[in-house]
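Let us work through a complete example step by step.
Step 1: write down the sequence.
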Amino acid sequence: MNSQIVPDKKMCLACSKPLRGRADKKFCDDFCRNSYNNQLKAQTNNYVRNIGNILRKNRRVLKDLLPDSETMVKTNKENLIRMGFHFKYSTHSYTNKKGNTYLFCFEYGYLNLDNDWFLIVRRKEPGM
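Step 2: predict the structure and record it as tokens.
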């Protein structure tokens, strides 16, 4: 009896349809390739998107508290939390010559003072 080994038919990784064409082909078309890759990246993208949203919200809260006519203003922790501020997230920090460390959300920053009070500041970058 003559038995022939038939190689397994390759299937599209996205829709499981049989593939035709090149031996190394993984997807039946561009839609399936994009769909598959988007699903792989979805969890990572959601995480990054959520952090970005929190950072933008923090910036908006700080901006709303600091009028354009002022360079700094004080507020308390309760007010920041009520406005939706998340203390866990910031874009960078800055330590001045006095050793005070300001946490920033883009160009708006805050310094933790005594008794749950915060100093809100806006950093002027060159060209701004």
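Step 3: interpret the result. The mean pLDDT is 91.
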